[in-house]
Amino acid sequence: MALVKLADAYPNYKQEIFGGDDIKGYEVYSATDEKVGGIYDALVDETGRFRYLVIDTGVWVFGKKVLVPIGRVRMDYDRRRVYITGLTKDQVERLPEYNDNMTVDYDYEERVRGIYRPTATATTATTAQVPSSTYDRNTYNYEHDRSLYDTDEQNHQKIKLYEERLLTSKQRQKTGEVTVGKHVETETARVSVPIEKERVIIERTNPTDTREVTPGEVDFREGEVARMEVYEETADIQKKAFVREEVSIRKEIERDTVDATETIRREELDIDVDGNPAINKRK
Fold first, then answer.
1. Range 54-69 average pLDDT
2. β-strands 35-44, 50-56: how paired?
3. For residues 44 and 51, is the Cβ–Cβ distance under 8 A?
4. pLDDT at 123
5. Quick check: 148 and 113 in contact, CB under 8 A?
6. What is the DSSP string of 66-129?
7. Distance of CA 95 to CAs 26, 89, 115, 119, Å?
8. Per-residue pLDDT tens for 122-151?
9. Residue 43 in contact with residue 104, Cβ under 8 Å?
10. Using CA atoms, how far apart are residues 275 and 172, in angstroms rounded to an integer?
11. In sequence order, what are the residues at sequence separation of 6 or more whose Cβ sits closer than 8 angstroms to the Cβ of residue 87?
């Protein structure tokens, strides 16, 4: 029978079980109204039933945490207190210590139950105790120790008030797909490049006035030449690639609100009073 911590069995235990309250931290008193310590945690069995409260005994038995069977507990929710029937300081000192990292197995529980079980005389009187010789670790169940695990309904009554709430969720579904790619188109491009070409012009003319050349001024020679370099431009046309346009692809979210109307129910508390009892309403 695996036992788990309260929050592991009921992650939302404050709302689901205690109406928004938290029993952790409740003060713990003995039946003689002596403060014992506080509730540190609770252990729940695999069926979800409370089996133990983990009590931090504080300075009563310094720094020791012990288990108290739920049948020995009387809750006082109004005063945020817990009273433990028949708990003595001697019992706490003899109880095996509890810590968060341990596993509460059958052997450990038997050590705890051995401290709380009634004596032989009391057992005969209550008849709630089954002799340990009638069971072993494979056959034991909590019905064998009803005096330790049965809760007193007069001391543990609770009424749960339920209400309906509209819970919403969203589903993301694909509505389409957009593909953006590119292809190549060809066309004939025309470009004009103005160029220049030089050419030599030879012009021969006759002087209009005939002038005599001074003797010795003329030096008749053969082979005299005049040189002139001639140039022309040619067009150099090449193809090179340039970025023509940039395309950015992204998504934008348009937000909208979907409204819904539904009738929901909620339970309210009805109190019928007979006579004139004192009632203290707390929330």
1. 85
2. antiparallel
3. yes
4. 43
5. yes
6. EEEEGGGEEEETTTTEEEETT--HHHHHHSPP--TTS---HHHHHHHHHHHSPPHHHHHHH--B
7. 21, 10, 7, 16
8. 444 344 455 556 788 888 888 888 888 887
9. yes
10. 60
11. 30, 31, 36, 68, 72
Give me the half-sphere count of Cα atoms (radius 13 Å) on the Cβ side of residue 244.
4
- pLDDT at residue 143, as a whole number: 86
Look-up of token digits 């072993």: 136
- CA 35, CA 49: separation in Å to the nearest integer? 26
Half-sphere exposure of 229 (CA within 13 A, CB side): 2
Count other Cβ atoms within 10 Å, centred on residue 277: 6
Q: Which two tokens stand for residue 112?
A: 């705890």
Residue 121 pLDDT > 50: no
Alpha-carbon distances of 141 from 60, 107, 137, 146, 282, rounded to whole Å = 32, 13, 9, 10, 38
All residues at 6 or more sequence positions from 49 whose CB lies less than 8 Å from its CB, including other chains: 142
pLDDT(152) > 70? no
Which residue in the block uniquely carries the two structure tokens 């019928």? 272
Q: What is the sign, positive or negative, of the torsion defined by CA atoms of 130, 136, 139, 142?
A: positive
Per-residue pLDDT, 189:
92
Residue from 53, 52, 54, 59 nearest 35 by CA: 59
Q: Is the pLDDT of residue 200 over 90?
A: yes
The span from the CA of 91 to the CA of 66, in Å, is 10
Token digits of residue 133: 């010789």
